[in-house]
Amino acid sequence: MQTPWLVGLTGGIGSGKSAAAARFAASGIHVVDADDAARWVVEPGQPGLAGLVGRFGRAVLQPDGRLDRAALRRQIFSDPRQRLWVEQLLHPLVRQAIADNLAGAQSEYAVLVSPLLIERGQYRQVQRVLVVDVPEALQLQRVLQRDGGDEAQARAILQAQLSREERLRHADDVIHNTGSLQELETRVLQLHQQYLQMARGMA
């Protein structure tokens, strides 16, 4: 089956990507999240998990044999070389999982949610790049409220991600998510109508 007309949705951690994606999904649009695909490929029995255990040992497993994400995160954010190795292992597996998922899309267009849309070159596979943008201070505040983690780790994650300026440079459309959830949803609905017209024009 042919891949549908595709919007790439991205933004830094804590920007509101998930809330925007949920509004697209509520409008009947097929949404696939690269983070979900990254979880699929490290399920027990999958080659992604086997590769991680081969590299880091059973220290990255929970007692039930599933991936201990916090343990893996500690390994890779303290060593950029390890992070690169993990990305090189998992990226092709995730790419295939996303392609398989999109092949089943029934809506007039689809949305690929990916925090690494720009870094991994996924933006080249989409017709529009939509960036959910917030100032870094607000990102940090939201991450700490959501995850309850320590500030140093949250800042390390922010530093590891693409700069806000570089992300915006690739954007076709931007949601400035500094207001209420209702304002975010209103903007998504506006873009939804725009994307429907664009997708129909390409049919």
Structure, briefly:
The chain has about 200 residues and is α/β, with parallel strands linked by helices.
Topology overview:
Layout: E1 5-10, H1 17-26, E2 30-33, H2 34-40, H3 47-56, H4 69-77, H5 80-102, E3 109-113, E4 128-133, H6 136-147, H7 151-160, H8 164-169, E5 173-176, H9 181-202
Parallel strand pairs: 1-3, 1-4, 2-3, 4-5
Function: Catalyzes the phosphorylation of the 3'-hydroxyl group of dephosphocoenzyme A to form coenzyme A.
GO molecular function, one term: dephospho-CoA kinase activity
EC number: 2.7.1.24
Q: Structural class of the secondary elements?
A: alpha/beta
Strand tally: 5
Q: Low-confidence runs (pLDDT<50, min 5 residues)?
A: none
Question: How many separate domains?
Answer: 2
* Strand residue percentage: 5-15%
Q: What would you note in describing this structure?
A:
The protein has 203 residues and is an alpha/beta fold. The protein folds into two domains: 1-29 and 107-203, P-loop containing nucleotide triphosphate hydrolases (Rossmann fold); 36-96. Helices cover 54% and strands 12% of the residues. It has nine helices and five strands. The chain has a five-stranded parallel sheet with strand order 2-3-1-4-5, sandwiched between helices. Helix 6 (136-147) crosses helix 7. The mean pLDDT is 89.
